Each structure stands twice: as structure tokens, then as C-alpha cells.
Amino acid sequence: EIESVDFKSSNRTVTLPGLVNIQTLVPGISTAASKDFEEVSKASIASGFTVVGTMGTGSPKGIEDKASLAIARTNTRNHAHCDFFLSMNANVDNTHDRLKDTAALFIPFSPIAGRALANVSEAAKYFGSWPANSPIVTDAKGTDLASILLLASLHNRSVHITGVSSLDDMALISMSKDKELQVTCDVEVYSLFLTREETGSKLLPTKVEQDAFWNSLNVIDCFTVGTLPYRLASEQGTSVAHAGIQETLPLLIDAVNKGRLSMEELIAKLYTNPRKIFSLPEQKDSYVEVETDRSCVIASTSGPFAGKVLSGTVHRVVLHGETAYLDGAWYTTGSEGQDLSSVTQAITKAIEKVTIPAIATSQAS
Amino acid sequence: EIESVDFKSSNRTVTLPGLVNIQTLVPGISTAASKDFEEVSKASIASGFTVVGTMGTGSPKGIEDKASLAIARTNTRNHAHCDFFLSMNANVDNTHDRLKDTAALFIPFSPIAGRALANVSEAAKYFGSWPANSPIVTDAKGTDLASILLLASLHNRSVHITGVSSLDDMALISMSKDKELQVTCDVEVYSLFLTREETGSKLLPTKVEQDAFWNSLNVIDCFTVGTLPYRLASEQGTSVAHAGIQETLPLLIDAVNKGRLSMEELIAKLYTNPRKIFSLPEQKDSYVEVETDRSCVIASTSGPFAGKVLSGTVHRVVLHGETAYLDGAWYTTGSEGQDLSSVTQAITKAIEKVTIPAIATSQAS
Ligand SMILES: [Zn+2]
Ligand SMILES: [Zn+2]
Ligand SMILES: [Zn+2]
Ligand SMILES: [Zn+2]
Ligand SMILES: [Zn+2]
Ligand SMILES: [Zn+2]
Ligand SMILES: [Zn+2]
Ligand SMILES: [Zn+2]
């Protein structure tokens, strides 16, 4: 067992469950010999995330067929510093080829997330073929979002909208929830802390929009790192695979300290709701110790928050009963992380059995 | 009884039921002392339409409140040369003020049809308050259309889309029908016979789109005159209230003669389906005699088909047992046309009683 050797410099340590980053961009997920997954999983465990749901960029390919899935799995083998699950990327051509070893379907409508679908008819095919009990995730916006929600309604199935970024989209989701459509959504954490006015980037919400997001926390099921930090960094010509992961928890803890967010909301949106939506198993003996009043200075090379002082530092992360990260040092080898994709499917099936009992047939065959 | 005095110049006369133009633009419907309704109803009866569903332009006002409804009713009194029904125009402010004497709600998304709604939240309010059994009609396109279909799905109610004008919109409606959403739609007849290439007007479909419309006749429930002829004429600076009405039946009969359309489809889309969708009563002893092989030359001042020779001429129109129009002459005074708005409501209620029996309560109160 690893011991903490630093002196107690903080008065307030809270223990959080291992957090889940449901949309974790791994650019080279399906690129042979890519180190992106390892880099991302290492940054994640050090930042309080014990589970990451991966998404590809689709360049050259996301997880779209058996070959690209095999490469992704090879890239994770012995290079997983936290647990993870994989999603299959819709690419128009793979409508009927569900990849068994993935936990969800991702339908991309923006180029960052894959080969973007051109229209709703292409998306409709996936709604016709993807199992009703397995998550469908999409970054659809505007018209595409309305169409996707319509598809979910017509097919009477759930859908998760990732990276909600406009008030109109938020209103559409809110209205759909009011009418009991099975829709959930997340916002990318950067969009809660950076504005268009501050950065000059159109990738970010205006101050007015951002304020509205904060006032809509009840509509937002999850927080995620998402693709926004990577896209912002790319705009500056400095993209790195792990962009945004490190800052996420300090930004949110800082917001808790400032009374903008409750710790319960943080846990709901980074643990409880992600687990529900993706049928994630309980991670036994996994947790995150956070020193909530200890200042952390974002590394001066690390994106738009470089040099900013936030209160909230990850002190220790324990995964499966073993300290994985402590005081800036990793104690993992890369063999710790498990692929949860198949487990989520088993959980989904078990839940289904409980809630939808099969009709008893009295006739012997 | 009026006798036909002309010599039989045609070998083929077919008798059609009195036709319905479900979206009949009446620009000054709620403008005091406007003659637009009279002009339109007179053009309609002479063109084979014994019922017109009116829509305003919203300039200065459509039928939006009690005062504008009262003006509209005054404009129709003794100036109705055919039967008609009125629709209430949604204008954001009248969410909770259903006008009892209208037959449907029209939700405008383009300025021609009223004060266009800005977004789906505004439309959502009407879906929450408008009676489930009364028609909602809208000219929504693109994002707005997807949102409207979503609202209809979430509220489990019917909606009629008028003036479908793009393949994407057609695909969305087709997909919704496949999943048994209660959606019906119409196309404006001009869009089946004029192309962007021929006219240079962006109001019209491209040749490719038009061909696709012809191949989607099974998705199209109704034909309508709609606002397209008026908008086209306005583009040329020659708008008249009755634009497009006269050409509609000759264009369609000509298409029947050319084998592009069956007479059964024509009747379904201009009579059977309109009656079903708007709960229109049977018009006793009302019919249209059409000489299907008699050429008619569109008046040389009358829009994009001016001077064109079409086979198909309205010979006689009989309304309520009396000849209203014969061989180019009107035999109406303007007192013949009845306002069917309240009748449609009574029919809707009667249908509802038959199909949705009230739950019997055994307990005396
Ligand atoms: Zn320590
Ligand atoms: Zn490693
Ligand atoms: Zn389907
Ligand atoms: Zn595990
Ligand atoms: Zn005659
Ligand atoms: Zn008159
Ligand atoms: Zn509603
Ligand atoms: Zn009548």
C-alpha cells in the first residue's frame, strides 16, 4: 500500500466516488500503435476519472467495424490506467453491423466526432436497427437534434445528447423531458467556464448563453469533458489528446466552493447519472480524495486556463482497492483498467429482465 | 334551372365531387371592407372548388382574435360564392384564446402566412392548449418542421403540414408516417408544374426535386393552391388575391390525361383526404362537371401559365343543388356559401364519441 508522505496542507478532504467522463475524446482510438488512449487514460485517472467512455475523431477512423475495433482493443491492452467503455461510431455504411463488444452507438453530426451523417434518413436506419436497450449518443444540434428527438419519440426509445451548446437546443431537450421523452444530455465543462467574449472563439457560448446554462442545471444530466477542449486547442494549433481532462474537476470544485454548484449536483452529473445512462457497474473500492480548499495552479502550457489558480486538488485516486495516483505520482502499470463494454450490456439485460417480465406461456411446445 | 346552351364540343365529361382547396390564401381576410374573400370565393366556385379553407397573410392581421374574426365573418356575409371554413392564426399572444368559430389552428413559420413564430417553444404552447381533436396546420420547414413533428409525437396528436417544398421535409414526413405519427401533408399544385430552372424563382423546386415530388405522391395527402401562386406573383409585382386558383384543376386534369396522375388520386387529394382531415360535412347535390378533353387556354394576363393550352375545362359547378357556374358565367349571388367551421367541430365531436366511448361511472353523485 502506498502511503501519503506530504504534510496535511488542507483542512477539507472530501472523498468522491470514482468519476465518469462519458465522452472522452481519444483521437487515435483506432489508429494502429497510437498512444492516445494510454495518454488519455493516464491523464484521466490522475484527474479523478476512474471510468472513461471513449469517442474517436473518425480521422482516419473511429470504431466503425471489426478491424477498427480490434485496433482500439489492442491500443487499450496493458495501456489502460482506468476503466473504460467503447462506443461504435455510426458511419452510414454500418447500419446493420452492430459491434458486439461496444457499449453504445455514437451518431456523429459534426466532423470532430466521425464521418458526420448527412441527414436524418441516415440516422433513422440506426434507430431501426440498434437494440432498444443499448444507449444511442449523438452530438446533433439544431435541425438534426429536433430530428433525432423525433426519431427517439417515434421509436419510443432513449437517446443521449452530448455537448449541448445552444439555448434553443436546451429548450428543445427540456420540452421533450417535460413530455417524458427518454432523453438525457450533457454539457462540456469548458462551456460552463469560458465564454466567446473572453476567448474570441465561436466554439464557446456567449456570456448570456453560459449564464442560461448555469440556470438550466436541472435539465443537464451529466457533465463531460467532451471534444470542446480539443477543438479549442486545435483552433490554436496546439491540440493534445488529453486536452481539458486535468482542469475539469478543479473547475467544478472551485464552482462548488463559490456556491455555484452543490457537491451533490457534481456527483449526480459525474457519477450517478452517467452510471444510470450507460448501465455502468459499481467499481468496488474505487474513489477519489479531493482537497477542496487546496489551490491548484493549472500548468502554464495547458490551454485557456493556464496559470489560473483554482481551489480543488486531486489528492489520491483509488481504483479497485489500489492507489492509482497520489500527490502527483502514478502507481499504475496500465494493466489495471478494464473494458466495461460487455459488462454494461449484461447489466442492461439484467435490468430489462427485472422491469419487463416475459409473458408466461402455458402451452408446452 | 339553368340550361347549358353550348353545343357539345367535348366527348368526355366527368363529374367530380365538389373539390376542396384546404389552404386558400385570402390576403384581406380580416381587413375591414376587403373584397378579397368575395373575389377568391368567386374564382374558386368557377374553378371547381365548392369548399375553401381560408388562410390570411397576417398583414395587417389574420384571424387572431375576436375582433379580426368578426371582420372576417362580415367580409364573408353575402359574399360567399362557395362554402368555406376559417382557421385561427397563432400569433404567440393568443395561446389560450381559442376562437370557437374556427375550424383549425394555423401555426405560421413564414411571414406570408402571418406573424411567424420565432421558435419551437412558442409553438409548444399551442400544442399544450389546442384541443386534441381539432386540426393544427403549419407551414413549418426544416428545423421548425422537425420540431413540430416532435411536438405532435410528444403530444400524441395529429398535425397537417402545408406546402411541403423540399425533399428533406418530404423524407421527414414520410419517415414519421412510417412510424404511425398522425401527420398529413399537402403540396402546392404550382410546385408540381413549375421549376426553378424554367422561371428563375427560388420559390419553386428544382427539376430534380419536382420529379421526386411526383414520385412521392403516395406520401402527399392533399393538393392545394396554397400561397405559392401569390408569392410568385408578388415577386413579379403582380399579386392578385385569386392567383393560381383558375389554373389548378386544368393543370391536374391535363396531368391525368398525360398519365402522370390517376383521376382517383386527384379525387383523393382534392376531396376525400381534405374532408377527412378537416372533418368536412358532405355537400349534398354538389358536383363539378369537367370536360376532360376540351382545351382551355389560360388567360394571357394570368401568371406563369399565361397562354398555355391545357386539356381540361370546368363546364358546370353545382352547389347545394343549384348551378353556380356554367360555361364561363356565374349564377351565384354570394349568399350561397355557408361557413362550415362550426359544422366541422360538431362532426369531430361525433366521430370522437363513436371511437372513444366515455368510461361508464357506476357511482351516483
Ligand atoms: Zn497528499
Ligand atoms: Zn501505460
Ligand atoms: Zn425506424
Ligand atoms: Zn473496474
Ligand atoms: Zn357547356
Ligand atoms: Zn358577391
Ligand atoms: Zn406541450
Ligand atoms: Zn354547403
3D structure, described in words:
Two copies of one chain form a homodimer. Helix content of chain A is 34%, strand content 20%. The first copy, chain A, has a six-stranded parallel β-sheet with strand order 5-6-7-8-9-10. Chain A has a five-stranded antiparallel β-sheet with strand order 1-11-12-13-14. In chain A, strands 2-3-4 form a three-stranded parallel β-sheet. By secondary structure, the first copy, chain A, is of the alpha/beta class. Mean pLDDT of chain A is 91; it is low at 1-5 and 360-365. Chain A is built from twelve helices and 14 strands. Chain A binds chain B through residues 119-121, 124, 142-143, 146-147, 149-151, 153-155, 168, 171-172, 175-176, 179-181, and chain B through 119-121, 124, 142-143, 146-147, 149-151, 153-155, 168, 171-172, 175-176, 179-181. The structure holds zinc ion (8 copies). The site of one zinc ion (ZN) has 3 residues of chain B, from loops.
Span between termini of chain A: 58 Å
Largest sheet of chain A: 6 strands, parallel
Based on CA atoms alone, the radius of gyration of chain A comes out at: 20 Å
Q: Sketch the topology of chain A as an H/E string, one letter per element.
A: EEHEHEEEHEHEHEHHHEHHHEEEEH
Q: Roughly what percent helix of chain A? A: 25-40%
Bound ions, cofactors and other small molecules, one mention each: zinc ion
Low-confidence stretches of chain A: 1-5, 360-365
Strand order in the largest sheet of chain A: 5-6-7-8-9-10
